[in-house]
Amino acid sequence: MSVHKSLSIGQILHILLDPLPFYYLLNPASATLVPHDVVVETKGEYTRGMSVADVRPIASRVMNVTVVERIDPALFRRDFMRGINQDL
């Protein structure tokens, strides 16, 4: 985790880029997982470079990735606040 000192108020702040993947690793039971067929679009005019999940109902589709579709927000808030309020 990087540390940033705020120039305007003189406090040291921690920068959290995205705490949800870390939370999932610590508490996988809090997440709803869904298999998807995801590809990186390399030739599209509007989606070039984006990850695209094809959700059309095709029986022969190969699901190549598991996506965290939802994390319980109440559990996340509770655990996050507990974590940042701990004495180091």
Summarize the structure in words.
This protein is α+β, with helices and mostly antiparallel strands and 88 residues long. The protein has one domain (19-84). Helices cover 23% and strands 33% of the residues. The protein contains 2 helices and 5 strands, in the order E-E-H-E-E-E-H. It has helices at residues 19-26, 73-84, and strands spanning 2-5, 12-15, 31-40, 51-54, 65-71. The protein has a 3-stranded antiparallel beta sheet with strand order 4-3-5. Strands 1-2 form a two-stranded antiparallel sheet. A hairpin with a 6-residue loop joins strand 1 (2-5) and strand 2. The longest helix is centred in the C-terminal third of the chain and has 12 residues, at 73-84. The two termini are 14 Å apart. The model has no long low-confidence stretch (mean pLDDT 81).
Features:
88 residues; two-stranded antiparallel ribbon; flat; 23% helix; alpha+beta; 3-stranded antiparallel sheet
Distance N to C terminus: 14 Å
Number of strands: 5
Strand/helix succession? EEHEEEH
By secondary-structure content and strand pairing, the structural class works out as alpha+beta
What are the SSEs and their pairings?
Blueprint: E1 2-5, E2 12-15, H1 19-26, E3 31-40, E4 51-54, E5 65-71, H2 73-84
